[in-house]
Amino acid sequence: MQRVVIFGFDFTMLRLLLLLGFIRIILRSEYRGLNHNSIDTAVLVFTMLTFFITTLFRGTMADIVNKLGFVYSTLGIYFFIRFTIREMDDVLTTLSVFVFVCTCLAVSMVIEQRTGHNFFSIFGGVPSLTWIRDGKLRSQGAFAHPLLAGAFGATLLPVFFWVRRYGKKWIGALGIFATALITITAFSSGPILAALFGITGFFCWSMRYSVRAIRWGFLLMLLLLSLVMKAPVYALVGRITIFGSSTGYHRYILINQAVERFGEWWLLGTKSTAHWGWGLWDVTNQYIAVGVDGGITVLIAFIIMIAFAFRNVGDGIRSGAPEPVKYLLWAFGSTLFAHTVAFMGMAYFGAQIYLNWYFVLAVLALAPKLTAAPYFVHRESVPPEVQVAVPGRTTGSCLTKNNKANG
Q1: Under 8 Å CB-to-CB from 47, ≥6 apart: which residues?
Q2: pLDDT tens digits for range 319-333
Q3: SS3 for 374?
Q4: Which of 29, 90, 173, 334 could form an SS bridge with 202, CB 3.0 to 4.6 Å?
Q5: Which of 366, 339, 365, 340 lies closest to 353, judged by CA?
Q6: Which domain holds residue 104?
Q7: How many folded domains does the chain comprise?
């Protein structure tokens, strides 16, 4: 992987771009006017807790350098998006960029399926030969693992369905087709399940005012299952599989060991899980990865961060914003839901998937502003490819903020 090393600190291409991006933000004073909210605080607290617990209490100098990189990348990605995406137009333009990126990625992964060769290997960081499991090629494109590539596509499906419904239909359709190809060619159960849950959530729009009842019903179902099942409820994870070669049982064993060894990691985490069992050095669960990295305090901070994001979705749905805006927040909520499902089968690492994850959080942090702004129908304020059709109005019109510049 191409990088610049300065005094032991690795500056990957993303980190260099973030540096240039923040120079621009400072020079143009784009940091002004940001309305700090609970999601911003949650991201900051989660990141700093992870750093302090894993370095000050049990870290070596190598750990400190590694976690400084984590802090730089995490806060850099999130707050760069927060500083630069301020309006509905910014969100729509970014979605169009994601469609373009996913289309390129889908083409590369299809070629990888046909040739068994990953041409991204010429840049380093990924193998030249495509992974094979039980005779199936698992495309990964520019990602470090097929699971991450699949999750990148799977979690974006709900928002592209929104673009298909309210935006330029061909752009939305292209995004849906591309992300479906990405999810399928990765040949991994986790991304496919994340896609199914995310799409299901998106099309449950008619049940948007019953989410609390659904949530309590789900918890009641888990309670009843725990009473009638001989094994723990989480043993169901080991039975969920899409492909015959999927490792659902491995994930069940990992969760079970995390529960049984709670006393080992709850306070400050643990340096290794290799002694938990065969193959369990590979922590394929984001929640457990966060816990063993920093203990129960960091895990709670991570869950609170997700909860705040879901709360913003709920507040947006109950607001007086136009239906396209509320449906957009619902779509991002479905994408967030898809991420939480993906977390059960993989631990995120790498810049690309974190760009996806923190983009979702940053847009949901923007939700109060999106729902509070007055909107009206206007044709020229955004490019045609990101215009949003308002139901009941002229096709091709778009949803833009009502201000003096375009009013």
Answers
A1: 70, 71, 74, 75
A2: 989 999 999 999 999
A3: coil
A4: 334
A5: 339
A6: 33-213+291-401
A7: 1
